Each structure stands twice: as C-alpha cells, then as structure tokens.
Amino acid sequence: MHELALAEGIVATALKEAERAGLKVTKICVRMGELQQIDEELFRSVLRDIIKSEDERVREAEILFLKEEAVLRCRVCGHEWTFGESKENLSEEDVELIHFVPEMAHIYIRCPECGSPDFEITKGRGIWIEYIKGERWTPGLP
Amino acid sequence: MHELALAEGIVATALKEAERAGLKVTKICVRMGELQQIDEELFRSVLRDIIKSEDERVREAEILFLKEEAVLRCRVCGHEWTFGESKENLSEEDVELIHFVPEMAHIYIRCPECGSPDFEITKGRGIWIEYIKGERWTPGLP
Amino acid sequence: MDPRLAIIDRRLEDIGRVIAISGGKGGVGKSVTASVMALLLSKLGYRTGLLDLDFYGPSVHTILGAKPTLPEEDRGVVPPEVHGIRFMSIIHYAGENPSPIRGVDISNATIELLAVTRWGSLDFLVVDMPPGIGDTTLDAVRLMKGAEFLLVTTGSKVSLAVVRRLLSMLVELKVRVIGVLENMRMDGSSSARDEMEALGVPFLGEIEFDRGLEDSIGDVEKLMRTHFAGKLERVLGKVLSST
Amino acid sequence: MDPRLAIIDRRLEDIGRVIAISGGKGGVGKSVTASVMALLLSKLGYRTGLLDLDFYGPSVHTILGAKPTLPEEDRGVVPPEVHGIRFMSIIHYAGENPSPIRGVDISNATIELLAVTRWGSLDFLVVDMPPGIGDTTLDAVRLMKGAEFLLVTTGSKVSLAVVRRLLSMLVELKVRVIGVLENMRMDGSSSARDEMEALGVPFLGEIEFDRGLEDSIGDVEKLMRTHFAGKLERVLGKVLSST
Ligand SMILES: Nc1ncnc2c1ncn2[C@@H]1O[C@H](COP(=O)(O)OP(=O)(O)O)[C@@H](O)[C@H]1O
Ligand SMILES: Nc1ncnc2c1ncn2[C@@H]1O[C@H](COP(=O)(O)OP(=O)(O)O)[C@@H](O)[C@H]1O
Ligand SMILES: [Mg+2]
Ligand SMILES: [Mg+2]
Ligand SMILES: [Mg+2]
Ligand SMILES: [Mg+2]
Ligand code: NI
Ligand code: NI
Ligand SMILES: [Zn+2]
Ligand SMILES: [Zn+2]
C-alpha cells in the first residue's frame, strides 16, 4: 500500500494552496493515469481517510476522480499506442515495478512498431491534480 | 547566415511529407519562435530562394509565417516571464550565442524572481513547422 | 499540479543532514566515497540512509555487494537495510537491466522516489549523485532544500575544469558546499588544494590512489579495511565538525 | 513538425564513417580516446571531424588545448579547425560557463548542432559521448543512423557492470558495435577480455595506465608521444580494418 504516500501528496498540495489563497478547500479533482495501475477504489478510500484526519481547511473537500488512458509515442518512428496494448506482453512482476516507478516502462516496454525503448509517455503517467476549488474561510467557523 | 541550414530543413521536411502522401505541397506554415532571434525578412527570402531551386513538388508552395513570443517558466518558483524581459540584461554577444543554440538561454538567463537557471522554454524556442498542405500531384504535369 | 512535490519536504523532515556527493566528472570516486562514507557513519552509530541518484550508472549496489530487493510497502516504500544502512536505488526496480531513459524521465522517477520513500528518522542521508549539472543535480537543489554538497575531484586538468564549473553553479544557487575532496592522488602530481582554497572552498583533504580498492569492491568488510576508508574517515571528521 | 530532423541525414551524407566513443561510465577515458583517435586519423591523412556531445562535462577542448571559437557561418556553421581536425563542441557557444541544462535541452541542442553543422566531406567523424543511455545516446542512435560504437571501459567491476548494460542495449537496438577497449589497465588486475569475448563482442585490446598522460593533457605534441597514443594507434589499426 505505497499509494498512501501519493494520497498524502494530494492533501498536502491542497492544504498548501488553501493556505496561500486564504481559502478552505471544497473540491479536489484527481486525475489517475493508467500507467501507474492504481486501484481506484483503494485509492479513493485511502484518500478519504487521510482527509478526515487532516486540517479543517481540507476536511470537508469533495473528491472527484478522472481516469486517463496511458498513451505512449515513439521518438524514433512516431508510432503512438496505448499501455493496454503493451500490458499483454508484460509479466505481473513488470507491471508491479511500473506501478512503483512508471518510468520503468522504458525498461520493460518497447515500441510495437520499431522495437525502440525511446518513447514519450504523452498521457496517463500517474497521479495528478487537475484542479482544486475553494471558498472563503474564517478559522474556527464551521 | 546560418539560417539557411534551418530553411533547408523546412524544405526537406515538406518534400518528405509530400513524397509520403503522394502530394504536391501548396502551403507551408512556419512558426518562428522569438528566442532564436531570426530576422523574419531575411529568413523569408532565404526560404523562397531554396524553394525555387528545389524539386517541383515543393517549388510552388506558398509560405506563411507566424511569430511566437518566447515564454520561460521557472521550475523552482513557477514564475513565468518573456524573453523580452530578460533580453534587456543580455549583451549582444549573449543574444548571438542564444541565436545559434537557444538552449544557451540557461547559461545566460536567470529567473527574474528567484535567480534560478532551471526554467522551461514553454513557447517560442525556434523554427517549427505548424503545418504543411498539399494537393494531388501527377509527375510531369504543371 | 504535481501532488508529489508538496510531500517531499515532509519525507525528509526527520533527517539530520543530507549530504550529496557530487563532482562534475564521472569516475572520480563519487560512488565509492558515498558508499564508504555511509558505512563509516553507520559504524559510528549514526542512523544512516544512502540514496543512489545516478540512474545512468547506478554503482552503489555493486560497491556494497547488495542485490536488488523490492522495498516493502508501508504508507510508502521502506528502503531495505544493507549492512545497517537504509539503501534506496533505482536498481530495486530496474534490476541489472539497461535503463534507456531520458532526463525528463529521470527527473520524474527521482521525484517519485523522493515522494514515496519513508526514510524515517535518520542522522544522515548520503546521496550519490551523477556527474554534471543536469536533471538530477537541478532536482536535488530544488527539491532537497537543506542538502549540502561534498564535491569529489581528481587532480587531473579535465576533472578540475569540470568541477570548477559545478562549483561556480552551486555557489550561484546558494547551495551549501561542505568542501572538495581530492581523490586518486598520485605522488608527483600537483594538488587541487591551492586552486580550491583560492576559490574560497574548504579543501577536505586528499586520498591517494589505492591499488587495494578494486579488489574490495562488493565486499564491505574488505572495503572498510582499505587505505581509502582510513583516509575517508579523517575527511569525515571534518564533515562532522562542519555543521 | 521539427524541421531539423529531416536535414540531419544530409549533413552527414559525405562522411565515410561515424565512430561514437561511448561506454557506460564516466572517467574511463572516452574523451582521451576520442581526441587521440581523431589526431591519429588526421595524421594518417584522413579528413577527420571531432564532435563533443558530452554537454555535461565537455572535455575534448581541454585535452586538445583548444579555445572556444565561434564557428563561421556559411549556409550553416563551419566547425573551426584544431590541429587539422574539424572540431565541434558546445563550448564554442557555452564557453567555460557552467551549463545547468536538463536532458530535454541537451537533446534540443544536440539536434540543433547536428542540423546546422556543415562538416563537408570527411573520412571519419569521431563523436565523444557522455556516459549512460540517456538523451544523447538515444539521440545518437536515432539521428546518426550509420554511427558505429566503440566502447571504452576499465577492468573495474563498477565499470564492467555499467558497460554490460550499455552493450546489451546497443545490441538490442541493432547498433553496430566495433568492439570494446579496456583502458587504464594495471598489472595484476583481471582483464575485461574474457568477459567481452564471451558476450560475442570484439575485444580491441588493452591500454595500460599511463602516468605520463596527465602531463600531456592540453599539449597535442606531447599527447601523441605518450604510451597511450602508441597503444591506441594499434587499436585504430583494428578499427580501420573492421569495415
Ligand atoms: N582512491 C582510489 N584509488 C583507486 N581506485 C579508486 C579510488 N577511488 C575510486 N576508485 C575506483 O575508480 C572507479 C570509479 O569510482 P566511482 O566511485 O564509481 O566513481 P564515480 O562515482 O565518480 O563515477 C572505480 O572503479 C573505483 O573502484
Ligand atoms: N590510460 C590512461 N592512463 C592514465 N590516465 C588516463 C588514461 N586514460 C584516461 N586517463 C585519465 O583519466 C581521466 C578521465 O579520462 P576521460 O577521457 O576524460 O574519461 P571520460 O571521457 O570517459 O570521462 C583523465 O584525467 C585522463 O587524463
Ligand atoms: Mg521481467
Ligand atoms: Mg556574456
Ligand atoms: Mg558514481
Ligand atoms: Mg568524457
Ligand atoms: Ni502500491
Ligand atoms: Ni545566424
Ligand atoms: Zn517506434
Ligand atoms: Zn524562479
């Protein structure tokens, strides 16, 4: 369950932004990139748990999840493909290593067209914050 | 006049695309990024000269120029600024070195906010082909 | 927004000192210095972590004779212990496979490791850096705010030319430079001492070329008995007193 | 679309052989090998170019004792001649300033240099590579299609571990590998020969650790009289016959 570390990052970012803007967070939109293969249900519940135990500036934030397909583009031949296509050829172990460090894709995946490891992860790498919304906040008030 | 080398790249790219698609090039849209400080008039005339002496597949192409302001974004503090702001502090020699290799910006320019050389050139680096348009082509026909 | 950036400070907050072993050129002994320094610190009873950030040529595991081990997950990942040191390296994930990765991916992977690694409470985190002022060095400077740099060079003109550039960059970036260590010194050759002192950088000492070192790569017991380790222990004394 | 990519082939079309001097690790002698090899080729009467692609630690100019010179413009840029060699390096533009640049910028600058440099007609272009399988190596493989790689390593375990990974990558990428050169050999130490031959890679020979080399860095006359240059000349014989 290393996902908790990333979930903490989301809350910490939201809190930082809220403090900077003097607001209370009402909504956090999280984009989940497919490459990192994070279980959505698991991540949702982990994130909710952390938020509950956090500062009151984020405690009541609603969380929205977007899923993003992972797209890879070869720098040698220009071919574009999805992680789904490559996943078939990966062992469970390889997928797990990519789960921890998505860049490991370059070690375990090749361009289906030309065989190159020199590709760009153009979409769907991992966890990202799409936006954070807030409203006026006065400390101590509900 | 090292610009000719880049102009050749534009024509070579257009030709390659035309051959691949079996078309004749009717229009090339060139985006000129500010950072590289290329003289538009000069570049126009150089490019026209090369095109005239080139393969008939590109010889009649119209060329459209777009200019793009150069924008830099600091990876440390997030500050965004334009090359214009930094140019005031550069010697003529520094600007010339950036003209040859725009990445030299990291040697001669600093973030005006925090002083870091660790910035991204988000827009307006140099010469780029926005698009190429073509029409059906039968060799030998006018 | 990248959610990982905001959490890195917190991951490093229980670490006393972060010491990045850097130096412009490759092959000057950065990885041996980082590895042996971590071993020495651990032997002195300090809680020590060792992070290999040289993704192009990770070497610390070779020097320590450590095998890739998938780190345990516990609210993040926990660096496996190697000879009493908490050791994190990309090889835990890449193994001995060639790693064809560009700077942009190295930067991303570095951020990922920094964001998820739970070092816990440490007295020292020693970081083995790659050569040059590229993605990793720039990321270390921007993400590991309190890191201090210890530069390794040889006395060779080629190496000095490169370390000079690195040094002037670090000074400009207001990074704390502990000092410069001259490694692989041969008698008769001129020393980096004068030049470094002229630049106003503490000179931490010289370590001679040690013919016994190669034979002890991968064998920690032997490594600690080398002339190199003996000399580095003295350098470490200066580092410990340079707070 | 990047207009520079389509023109690189044409810039290299009048070059007989492009030889990239690579090797996983830094400090194994790639730059000295590249520099002396270019000098030897030029002395043999071959029209020779030398391209320093190690933007993190450009060293060829230090070895050749060459000053940065802004290349002349003539339908592109013309590499200045240094000791009869057409020499291109980022230092012509960066000087001795520190270069804080990430991989993405190194890649962009590499493409720029390859697109605008007019080498003219050459028998050999020797390319000095940085360590690792990063932006520069991946760009060399994708943009300099006909390039052959000559790998330099020392006999040390650390260096062999890294060169093994590079080699397996190059083989996978179907790049032509001329062979492996073992540098800085000390007597008594084991040789890389057996391992390289077992991997099916030509072993090009060994060059001993040469105590006179350092003193000749920056002085081409002296450099050509070193034991290193003498030994490299023999290696070059094998390279010339390996078409
Ligand atoms: N003082 C020394 N004496 C002899 N060999 C050394 C010494 N320091 C380092 N080495 C050797 O030099 C090589 C490069 O060392 P390494 O630590 O990997 O350098 P870097 O990390 O700077 O690339 C290794 O083979 C190492 O064993
Ligand atoms: N055979 C050798 N004997 C002695 N010193 C050497 C030898 N080969 C290289 N060197 C020295 O080793 C250092 C690193 O060489 P360099 O060519 O810069 O390595 P790289 O380009 O692989 O980083 C330089 O100081 C160089 O003078
Ligand atoms: Mg596998
Ligand atoms: Mg200047
Ligand atoms: Mg190292
Ligand atoms: Mg070199
Ligand atoms: Ni996990
Ligand atoms: Ni010009
Ligand atoms: Zn491909
Ligand atoms: Zn800034």
Strand count, sense and closure of the main sheet of chain A? 3 strands, mixed
Q: What percent of residues of chain A are in strands?
A: 25-35%
Number of helices of chain C: 11
Q: What quaternary form is this?
A: heterotetramer
| Shape, per Cα inertia axes of chain A | elongated
Strand order of the largest sheet of chain A: 2-1-6
Helix-and-strand structural type of chain C:
alpha/beta
Radius of gyration of chain A: 18 Å
Largest interface: C-D, 50 and 50 residues
According to CATH, the fold-level topology of chain C is Rossmann fold
Describe the protein's topology:
The complex is a heterotetramer, with 2 copies of chain A (142 residues) and 2 copies of chain C (243 residues).
Chain A: H1 3-21, E1 23-33, H2 40-52, E2 62-68, E3 71-74, E4 80-82, H3 83-87, H4 92-100, H5 105-108, E5 119-123, E6 127-136
Chain C: H1 5-12, E1 15-22, H2 30-43, E2 48-52, H3 60-64, E3 72-73, E4 77-78, E5 81-82, E6 85-89, H4 91-94, H5 103-116, E7 122-128, H6 135-143, E8 148-153, H7 157-172, E9 176-185, H8 193-198, E10 203-208, H9 213-216, H10 220-224, H11 227-240
Parallel strand pairs in C: 1-7, 1-8, 2-6, 2-7, 8-9, 9-10
Antiparallel strand pairs in C: 3-4, 5-6
Helix pairs in contact in C: 1-5, 2-11, 5-6
Bound molecules: adenosine-5'-diphosphate (ADP) (2 copies), magnesium ion (MG) (4 copies), nickel (II) ion (2 copies) and zinc ion (2 copies).
